[in-house]
Amino acid sequence: GAGVSQSPRYKVAKRGQDVALRCDPISGHVSLFWYQQALGQGPEFLTYFQNEAQLDKSGLPSDRFFAERPEGSVSTLKIQRTQQEDSAVYLCASSGQGAYEQYFGPGTRLTVT
Amino acid sequence: SQQGEEDPQALSIQEGENATMNCSYKTSINNLQWYRQNSGRGLVHLILIRSNEREKHSGRLRVTLDTSKKSSSLLITASRAADTASYFCAHPPLRGGYQKVTFGTGTKLQVIP
């Protein structure tokens, strides 16, 4: 079966541009997570969905960050008016009902110039 | 901000040697997980140990947990070049569900053939 996929794998944006990052979780996984990983650091939690409900968005760094999962499957992380400090790898993960183990996608490397 | 710390930050060993990395955390937990991240396979879940367990094995991996010291260790025996990766400990909150996993800063392991 397919794992978690993310697109694009690489994105270069000019400062001030809006970007949208897509995550396709493993089919049937109810939980979906977004993380931000800076170079040389561990992933930092951004937000969590259970099906289509966004239950925790406490990790989103500013109101420029917005995530959605309208049908409880595919999710999009949108960053408005990108800044240089937004440059990072954005990881998506999914997990099954009641499971602790998370399955990660390959990530999207965002570079803001 | 990340709550866990791995030690050492970097480790270089010869193939066939054992590698030990440690993790300290700050809050009470009900389980602790170890993940591996390399460029080839991304971030992959390795093993989970529950708070009522002191030791757990999986293949060449051995994990210990000391909740009184809020620390865990990961031992990789008979290391291989393919074990070269960054290793992270991670844990969900004790209360409020399992969604907001906190990752440590990681140990970068290099296994020299």
Q: What's the quick description here?
A:
The complex is a heterodimer of chains A (113) and B (113). Chain A is an all-beta fold.
Layout of SSEs?
The complex is a heterodimer of chains A (about 110) and B (about 110).
Chain A lengths: L4 E3 L2 E4 L5 E6 L6 E7 L6 E7 L2 E4 L8 E4 L6 E5 L8 E8 L7 E2 L3 E5 L1
Chain B lengths: L4 E3 L2 E5 L4 E6 L6 E8 L3 E9 L4 E4 L2 E6 L4 E6 L8 E7 L10 E2 L3 E6 L1
Parallel strand pairs in B: 2-11
Antiparallel strand pairs in B: 1-3, 3-8, 4-5, 4-9, 6-7, 7-8, 9-10, 9-11
Treating each run of at least 4 consecutive H or I residues as one helix, how many helices of chain A?
A: 0
Major β-sheet profile of chain A: 7 strands, mixed
Cα(first) to Cα(last) distance of chain B is: 36 Å
Main sheet summary of chain B: 6 strands, mixed
- Shape descriptor of chain A: globular
Alpha-beta content class of chain B: mainly beta
Q: Please count the beta strands of chain B (DSSP E, at least 2 residues each).
A: 11
Beta-strand level of the residues of chain B, as a percent range?
over 45%
The helix content of chain A, as a percent range, equals: under 10%
How much helical structure, as a percent, in the residues of chain B?
under 10%
What can you tell me about this protein's structure?
The complex is a heterodimer of chains A (113) and B (113). Chain A is mostly beta strands. Chain A has no helices and eleven strands. In chain A, strands 2, 4, 5, 6, 9, 10 and 11 form a seven-stranded mixed β-sheet that branches. In chain A, a hairpin with a 2-residue loop joins strand 5 and strand 6. The model of chain A has no long low-confidence stretch (mean pLDDT 95). By secondary structure, chain B is mostly beta strands. Chain B is 0% helix and 55% strand. Chain B contains no helices and eleven strands. In chain B, the strands form two sheets. In chain B, strands 2, 4, 5, 9, 10 and 11 form a six-stranded mixed β-sheet that branches. In chain B, a hairpin with a 2-residue loop joins strand 6 and strand 7. Chain B starts with a strand and ends with a strand. Chain A binds chain B through residues 31, 33, 35, 41-45, 48, 50, 55-56, 58-59, 91, 93, 100-107, and chain B through 1-2, 4, 31, 33, 42-45, 48, 88, 90, 92, 97-106.
